[in-house]
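Hi L., both proteins are below.
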Amino acid sequence: MFLDIVIIAVSLLALAICGWFFLTRRLYNDYDEKHFLVGVLFSSTFAFSANLLQLVLFELLGVLSSRARWINWKIDLYCLLCALIFILPYYHAFSILQSYGIRPMRSAAVAVVAFLSFLYAFYRIGVHFQFESEAPGLAGIFTIAQAVKRVGVIGVVLLAVLSGFGAVNLPYTYLSLFTRHIREEEVQALQERLVQSVETTVMRKKKLLLLQADMQQATAATSTRGLMRRVMDSIGLSSSARRISVVDQ
C-alpha cells in the first residue's frame, strides 16, 4: 500500500509540473502579468484531470491495487468538483472585479454575492432537468451524484458551444493558407485574355449576323425566282391555249 501511495503522489506531482510548464512556456507567452495563484490552480486542475485518464491506463496495465485506484479516483473526483463548483467560480469573479480596479476587500465581498448567485443557478439546473435526489432542497447539491450530473450538463452545453465555434472559426482561420498574393502582371494578363475573349465574341456575332443576312437574301431571291417562273409558266400556258383555239377554228 505504501508503494501505491508513492506512485500516486509522484504521478500527481509530475502531472502538476507538466501543467505548470505548459502554462508558463505556452499560454503565458502573450501575457505580461503572471499570477502565481493562477498557475497553481491551472496545474492542480490539469493534474487531477489527467490523472483520471491515467487511472484508466493503470487499470488496463494492472498498476496499483484496486483499492488504491478507487481511493485515487475518489480523491480526483472530490478535488475536481470542489475546484469546479467552489474555487474557480469565486476566483473568476474576484479576478474580473480586480481587473476593473476595484479594491480587494470590496472585490472579495462582491465576489461572494456572485458566487452565491452561481450556486443558486447551479441548483436550478437540477430543478429544470428533474434530477432525482435522495436529499431534497439545497442539500442535493452537496451529493456527489447530483454535483456530477449538474457539472455534466454544463460541460455538454459548453462543449456544444465550443464545437460550433470551432467548426466555423477553424476553416476561417486556415483559409489564409489557400490564398496568395496576386501580382500586377497576372492581373494584366487576365485583362488581356478578357479583352481577347470579348473581341472574339463580337467577331463571331458579326459573322452570325452576316450569315443570317445572306440566308435572308438567298431566301428572298429564291422566292422571287419562283414567282417569275410561275408568271412565265402562266403566260406560256395562255399563249398555247390561244394557239389551240385558233387551230380548232
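That was the first. Here is the second:
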Amino acid sequence: MLTHLSALIGIVVGVGSIGWLGPLIILLVLRDRSAFVADHARTTLNFQITMLIANVVAAVLWLVAIGVLLTVAIAVLVVVLSIIAAVAASRGERYEYPLSIRFLR
C-alpha cells in the first residue's frame, strides 16, 4: 500500500515528476523481504514512468494549449488510480494499472 501512496508525494509537494522515486526506493529496499511488495513496487514504478512520459508529451502540447488540460487529466488519473491500487494492496490483492507500459517485469 505504501508504494502506491508514496507515488503521490510528487503531486502533494508540487513536483509531479518525482512520483517514481518512492516506488523505486521501496523496490530496492524491500524486494528481498516480500514478493508481494516487490510486485506492487514494480507495478507502481511502471505506471509512474508511463505517467512521466505522458507529462513530457503534455509539456510539449502546452504550446497548443491542449497540454494544460492533459496535465490536469494526468494528475487526476494518477491520484485516483493510486488510491484504488492502495486499497487493493491493503486487501492483499494484486492490482495492474490501466494504460501502464511494463518496463519492469
